[in-house]
């Protein structure tokens, strides 16, 4: 069923979409009240909505889990993409908005399981579509907060707010600086003369099945031992050296990653930005232990390719994708060169996104 009008039995009443995101710096800092620099992907998730003629919510996606139905009052969606949609509906209802039974048609060209925040795009697109249909006045930051709660409470991933803020507010051609504590945000230009490319490792991952929640718990324990609200409040990396392992290394990554984001957000050369990306990956590999051999090998192959200034995993790790900062005009060739080496071992790495960052007029956030 590729045509939403077939599903709706006519034209839908409302549309909305939201992008995924590529994180350049600031990995695993959002749930530590820290800082991050994502950029939006060209790929998006789209939602079409109409009121249902019965007392059920009816969901359909040919690219996700197919058909899902659950009661509008008191029902629960099965796990899968339905849990994210259910979370958005229930949390909007909790604000006092009356949500009628809905028919929801979902399409996406975002790759799932590659660390590009397909779940946040689904949540934000659903909330935008509901806002368009029902006319409630929640702004984009509030939508991001509701989307985060939907993921935590209904999909059971204890995530920070970066992905939802990025999907709700990001621009494809500028980074978005986000302060996770205050939700301050502003656009930051990409380094001049650069472009990005995202290359998938071919190893899928889901946060719910990874050690993501374990890492968050370790950071919370490190904060308690240091007597701070969150690791963002530790400004001297030497302060973490008294912690026991593995808390010492987890905290060191977060503290240094925050410093990398703050430096980059002030404006640095393309070469320095690449160095910061490289340092971020080494920290994620060694101190935070969220990389895997395939990601390390793909990052090494990208760094060895001509025109690449820096490369690192993007997303929470445990599989998924890498991102490389390249000189303008050299990104695709660099990725193809890296993949010719990486895929020799029978892996299924592939180019996901050449992200436009230079040479086009800047857009306002969606």
Topology overview:
Layout: H1 4-8, E1 14-25, E2 35-51, E3 56-61, E4 66-71, H2 81-94, E5 102-108, H3 118-134, H4 140-153, H5 162-169, E6 174-179, E7 185-189, E8 194-200, H6 212-226, H7 247-265, H8 270-286, H9 293-304, E9 308-314, E10 321-327, H10 331-342, E11 350-355
Parallel strand pairs: 3-5
Antiparallel strand pairs: 1-2, 2-5, 2-6, 3-4, 6-7, 8-10, 8-11, 9-10
Helix pairs in contact: 2-3, 2-4, 3-4, 3-5, 4-5, 6-7, 7-8, 9-10
Q: Any key phrases for this structure?
A:
single chain; 366 residues; alpha+beta; 4-stranded antiparallel sheet; 10 helices; 36% helix; GHMP_kinase_N_dom; GHMP_kinase_C_sf; nucleotide-binding
Order of helices and strands: HEEEEHEHHHEEEHHHHEEHE
Structural class: alpha+beta
Shape: globular
Work out the radius of gyration.
Answer: 20 Å
Pfam families: GalKase_gal_bdg, GHMP_kinases_C, GHMP_kinases_N
Protein name: Galactokinase
GO molecular function: galactokinase activity
Family: Belongs to the GHMP kinase family. GalK subfamily.
Write up this protein:
Residues 6-50 form the Galactokinase N-terminal domain. Belongs to the GHMP kinase family. GalK subfamily. Residues 269-341 form the GHMP kinase C-terminal domain. Pfam families: GalKase_gal_bdg, GHMP_kinases_C, GHMP_kinases_N. InterPro entries: Galactokinase, GalKase_N, GHMP_kinase_C_dom, GHMP_kinase_C_sf, GHMP_kinase_N_dom, GHMP_knse_ATP-bd_CS, Mevalonate/galactokinase, Ribosomal_Su5_D2-typ_SF. This protein has helices at residues 4-8, 81-94, 118-134, 140-153, 162-169, 212-226, 247-265, 270-286, 293-304, 331-342; strands at residues 14-25, 35-51, 56-61, 66-71, 102-108, 174-179, 185-189, 194-200, 308-314, 321-327, 350-355. With 366 residues, the chain is α+β, with helices and mostly antiparallel strands. Mean pLDDT is 91; it is low at 358-366. It is 36% helix and 23% strand. It is globular and about 60 Å long. The longest helix has 19 residues, at 247-265. The protein contains ten helices and eleven strands. Strands 1, 2, 3, 4, 5, 6 and 7 form a seven-stranded mixed beta sheet that branches.
